[in-house]
Amino acid sequence: MKLRKIVKRLQELHPKEIDLSLDRTKNLCQKLGNPQDQINCISVVGTNGKYSTIQALYAILKEANYKCNIYTSPHIQKINERFFYNNKSLTDDELTNLLSEIEEANNGEQITFFEILTVAYFHYAKNYPKNINLIESGLFHRFDATNILKKNLASIITSIGLDHLDWLPKKEQTVQKIIFEKTSTLLNSNIVVAKQNSNEIDNYIQDTIKNNQSKKNFFNKSYSFTFKENDFFYFEDEFGGLKLPKPNLLGKFQVENVSTAIATARQLKDYKITDDHIKNGITKIESIARLQEIKSGKLKDLVKNNQLFVDGSHNPLGAKVLNQYLQSLNCKKHIILGMMANKDHNEYMGCFKDIKTLTTVNISNQPNAINGIKLKEKINNFPNIKYKNSVEEAISSIRLQENDIILITGSLYLAGEVLNLN
Asked: What totals of helices (H) and strands (E) does the chain contain, helices first?
C-alpha cells in the first residue's frame, strides 16, 4: 500500500508522461551527489531486442561470478522489476524507502515519472560500485533520462526500426531520425551493433556514429554467427570461434540478441569471461514476456494440452521476427491481440501470415490502449476476426484442435496483465 501511494504521487509531479529533456534529471542527480558518475555501466539502445540482449548478457556475467544491477522499462508485472541490484529485485519496503528518499530530495519539483525513477536507480546503484550496471535506454536516447553518464564500459545498439513515431515531428518520422536520436550521443568506449533489418539501416548507423571515437563492432564485420545442425550455432569474432549450444530462448531471432550479448562480453577486457561462462550462461537466460511459453497456471488450464505463448512485441519489426518463428511451426496458430492506441495496428498484423483466428481484447487499466472493439474494426479485413471482453473469454472462445497454439501479443502491458491473470 505504501509503495502504491508513493508511486501515485510521483506520477503526478509532471503534467506530461514524457517531456524529452535532460535538465530535470541532471539537477536532481546533482542534489544527490551525481551517483551516475560512481558506477560501471553498459548502455543499451535500440528498438527491439534490448531486454533479451540485457538478459543474455546478465546470464553470461552471472555465470562468470560478476554481480549486476539492471534497469529496464516498462515493468511487466511489478515496478520492482525495474530496480534490480546485486542479482535480485528490491523488495516493496526497500523500494518504498528508496523512492521516499528521492521524493524528499526532489522537494516537489516538476519531473516526469520515468526521470525520477531513473534518478532513484542511479542513487541506489552507487551502493554497489563494483557491480556492472546494464542500462536500457527508454523512448529514444539523446534526451532520455538514462543519457547523463559521462563514461561507460560499452554501448549496445540493438535492432532499430519504426516505433514511437508520435513523439517525433511529422516531417521527421523516419528511421533516419530515430537512428540519429538513439545513436548520435553515444559515449566513447566500445560500440556493439546488432544485426539490423536492412543494409540501409546499417549504413545509417555507420554514418551517424562515424565521428565517435569508440571501437566499433558491427555484426557481419566484427562478429557473426551461423546456425549449425544438432542444436548448435557457431559464433566468431576477433578472438576466435565458439561452437555454442542454442540458447534457452525460442525463435532464431533470439540468437541474434544472444550473439550481440556475447560480442559485448568478449569486449570487456577488464573482466575475465571464459568460453565456458558463455556456453553455460546462454542456456540459463531468464526472459519474461518475450515469446514466453506459459506452462502452468489458470490460463494454461484453459488450453489444456495445447501450447500458450505470450509476447510483448508491439511494432512491425517485432511482428516480423515473431511471424518467422510461427512460420517454423507446423500447426494452426491463433492470435489474441491487444494494443496501445498510438501503434500502427494494420501494419503490425500485416506482418503475420497463415493465422487461423484473430481475437481482439481490451487492455485493462491502460487508458492509452485502443478499445478491443475499435481494434477489431480497424483491422476487419483480417479473416476470422472477433472481439472478446477479456483474455479468459478470448481463450475459451477458440476451438482448439490437437497441436494448435495460441499466441497473446501486441503490447508489453497486455503481457503483464496475462502473466498476472495466470
From this structure: 15, 17
